[in-house]
Write a structure and sequence with these properties.
The protein is α+β, with helices and mostly antiparallel strands. It has 10 helices and 15 strands. Strand 2 and strand 3 form a beta hairpin. Helix 3 crosses helix 10. It is globular.
Length: 328
Amino acid sequence: MKSYTAICFFLAVALILFPLVSVPKAKATFSANVSGESLDEDTIYEAAENTEEENVKVLKAASGQVTELPLREYIIDSVAAEIGATSEEEAIKAQVVACHTLLLYKKAHKDESIGEADISDTSQKLLTQEEQKEKWGENYQTFREKIEKCFDEVQNKVLCFEGEPILATFFSISNGKTENAENVWGKSLPYLVSVDSPDDKLSPNYSSTFSVSAEDFKKALEEKGASAEKEENEWIGDVTFNSTGTVKSITLCGKEFSGTDIRSMFSLKSATFSLKYEDSKFIFTVSGYGHGVGMSQYGANEMAKKGNTYDEILSHYYKNAVISTQTQ
């Protein structure tokens, strides 16, 4: 009888203690903060670690080395490089959320070409603390604290679509409209669709020109399979445009190229351009700066100047995405 009683006692203790030792470490989830309701269980995205403890493995493309940074340091360094510290605070907050979201997307959609790294510095630029000190000089402390403050205020905010972090791309200046994702990367995404960004046209860096000699122009085209047999003034053929104003296609020396192909070939600032032949040179006149998909950093800053908050900025540039809160 005593033996039976002892067995029951130990079984009872085990049942009490077992849940305490077997429950795994809680993972972070995202809940929608627009309506105040949580996302459905089947669409909740689970983050890898507590954001305060998480480290980010960054591939330095130039050296091929992988370095590890605390998440907070990584995001702050990225924001410092991408939008800078002289921007409006609400624009900086929007950039913090975009950088954090893009990182989570990259981690969830692993690129095998970067090996063990979570992200490459070609996807997001970084300005290290030493580089910040050199660039900002006596303003370093003020600028650094400004970005840190913005980070701390939105560190748990993430852009989601159907419960998962989105591909939150961004760029410098649009041509007045942002670009549809399919026009650049060939894949349609419901949250990367064209929106108006008219203030971008006020940027001092909105327009640029690029000229190339006929010889170099010919060489670049022939390397891509074109045949420059006619006179130079006959090399430029038909041009078509996307609804956003970017070049969809252009025929050069009898071969059709996409606007993004030409932008890459000649290192143009954007795929919104016109081309003419003059004085033995081919001259590109370009509008905007960047691929044009997602958030315009110049446009975001102009919205902030007008009183728009970071969430209003993000909702404008990332249609159909939800600003969610990362919870532990």
